[in-house]
């Protein structure tokens, strides 16, 4: 396990630590796989361990044991998780497994019988119990038990803010509700308190995440408002940091969020998992089959906030997807003109209802449709970015390399998943987390280049 380089994906994040462990201090390493929601779980586990006096090791060799936080959403993710467990066992030998794949302990122990313990997702207490059993705590009460702040697996200028756990949807391709349960929203005061502490600690960007951000608070029977997300977004927007909304289902009331974006309270950015556009495909997915109304909503959002950036993900090759259905998706993309797009080729997930659907699409057809889809998305992205040539953009600095080249992001770019804006000259003095204004002087398919103004 090596120090986390700045260009490493979040699903391979390692602890970023600067302090040196005191002599005799028990130390734990962490390998965190999967989505940002799992990354938050990893940060919470490490923060709890740090508060108990454990040191956090940035490599295998310095750790008394290693926690691997797994992903179990797709078969490919399960394979990656098993590989990571195997690597940790090979490099360290003392491994505790947690996370989504931990919901299938026999699957893990069947491949790696030497793991010390297996726990499921967000089972923090069980993870701590397993660590205590493997590496007993030995805190120094004068220096260990009151850490200044939580342990972060992201750069200090941005942080993921998880507002709820679980999901009430029953999409046929997804097993997340089986792994993480039904929707459970965190109390608004707890979310705000965490956000305030993060901003006080220097965080410049809050990335709001959950399985279904739009549904936040709708599980409360005694709530004061019908859609608590609106009040939460307004309160977060008052803290002075960038606030970016992820995993927002396009419910009608989402339109009420858009004025906050137009006013600059929340970033003009929505990450919405549309998944497909043909109503029959959506019905087979058990998703809302309202692609036409979605186009109307997109038009309404853009009318309120013309600068809004829309990101989404799609699945091609879903069981039963015909060429006509796929062409409908391409035509919908032409109309929707989404700014940022990701696409996955469908694959079976153990336990998902979609596995039993008829007419599975051949692998070569999935690959061909994926290529056509990405070609379309790339052309749209290139044209959208070309329209920004000569514009002035506020950007947040993520990194400045040894050659003085700054890697930044505009308000339209989430870390790791979207594009970047690069400043090639006069940027050596910039610091990560700094927000500066640039003029765009070059554009590409996914990235921008600019100069300081």
From TrEMBL:
Domain TRAM: 386-453
Residues of the MTTase N-terminal domain: 26-136
Requisite cofactors: [4Fe-4S] cluster
EC number, as in UniProt: 2.8.4.4
Chain ranges of the Radical SAM core domain: 153-383
Annotated residues for binding of [4Fe-4S] cluster 2: 167, 171, 174
Signal peptide, first to last residue: none
Binding residues for [4Fe-4S] cluster 1: 35, 71, 100
Chief site of localization: cytoplasm
Keyword Cytoplasm: yes
Cofactor note: Binds 2 [4Fe-4S] clusters. One cluster is coordinated with 3 cysteines and an exchangeable S-adenosyl-L-methionine.
Pfam families: Radical_SAM, TRAM_2, UPF0004
Class of this enzyme: transferase
Catalysed transformations (reactions): L-aspartate(89)-[ribosomal protein uS12]-hydrogen + (sulfur carrier)-SH + AH2 + 2 S-adenosyl-L-methionine = 3-methylsulfanyl-L-aspartate(89)-[ribosomal protein uS12]-hydrogen + (sulfur carrier)-H + 5'-deoxyadenosine + L-methionine + A + S-adenosyl-L-homocysteine + 2 H(+)
Family statement drawn from the similarity comment of this UniProt entry: Belongs to the methylthiotransferase family. RimO subfamily.
Function: Catalyzes the methylthiolation of an aspartic acid residue of ribosomal protein uS12.
Record's protein name: Ribosomal protein uS12 methylthiotransferase RimO
């Amino acid at each position: 396990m090596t120090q986390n380089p700045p260009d490493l994906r979040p699903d391979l994040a390692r602890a970023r630590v600067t302090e040196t462990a005191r002599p005799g201090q028990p130390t734990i390493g962490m390998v965190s796989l999967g989505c940002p929601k799992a990354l938050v779980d990893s940060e919470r586990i490490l923060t709890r361990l740090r508060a108990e006096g454990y040191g956090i090791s940035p490599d295998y060799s310095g750790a008394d044991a290693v926690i691997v936080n797994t992903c179990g959403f797709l078969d490919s993710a399960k394979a990656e998780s098993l590989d990571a467990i195997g690597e940790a066992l090979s490099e360290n030998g003392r491994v505790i497994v947690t996370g989504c794949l931990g919901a299938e302990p026999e699957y893990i122990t069947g491949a790696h019988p030497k793991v010390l313990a297996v726990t499921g997702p967000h089972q923090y207490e069980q993870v701590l119990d397993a660590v205590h059993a493997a590496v007993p705590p030995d805190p120094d009460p004068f220096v260990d038990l009151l850490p200044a702040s939580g342990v972060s697996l992201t750069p200090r200028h941005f942080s993921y803010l998880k507002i709820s756990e679980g999901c009430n949807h029953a999409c046929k391709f997804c097993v997340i509700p089986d792994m993480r349960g039904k929707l459970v929203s965190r109390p608004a005061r707890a979310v705000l308190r965490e956000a305030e502490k993060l901003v006080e600690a220097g965080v410049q960007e809050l990335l709001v995440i959950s399985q279904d951000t739009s549904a936040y608070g709708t599980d409360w029977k005694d709530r004061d408002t019908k859609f608590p997300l609106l009040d939460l977004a307004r309160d977060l927007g008052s803290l002075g940091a960038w606030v970016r909304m992820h995993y927002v289902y396009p419910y009608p009331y989402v339109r009420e969020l858009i004025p906050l974006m137009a006013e600059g309270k929340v970033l003009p950015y929505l990450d919405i998992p549309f998944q497909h556009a043909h109503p029959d495909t959506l019905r087979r997915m058990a998703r809302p089959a309202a692609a036409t109304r979605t186009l109307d909503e997109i038009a309404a959002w853009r009318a309120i906030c013309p600068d809004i950036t829309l990101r989404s993900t799609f699945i091609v090759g879903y069981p039963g997807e015909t060429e006509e259905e796929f062409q409908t998706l391409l035509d919908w993309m032409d109309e929707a003109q989404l700014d940022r797009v990701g696409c996955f080729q469908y694959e079976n997930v153990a336990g998902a209802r979609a596995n039993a659907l008829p007419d599975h699409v051949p692998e070569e057809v999935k690959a061909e449709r994926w290529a056509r889809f990405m070609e379309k998305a790339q052309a749209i992205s290139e044209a959208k970015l070309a329209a920004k040539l000569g514009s002035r953009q506020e950007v947040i600095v993520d990194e400045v390399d040894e050659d003085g080249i700054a890697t930044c992001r505009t308000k339209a770019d989430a870390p790791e998943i979207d594009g970047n804006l690069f400043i090639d000259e006069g940027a050596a003095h910039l610091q990560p987390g700094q927000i500066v204004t640039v003029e765009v002087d070059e554009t590409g398919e996914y990235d921008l280049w600019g100069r300081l103004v």
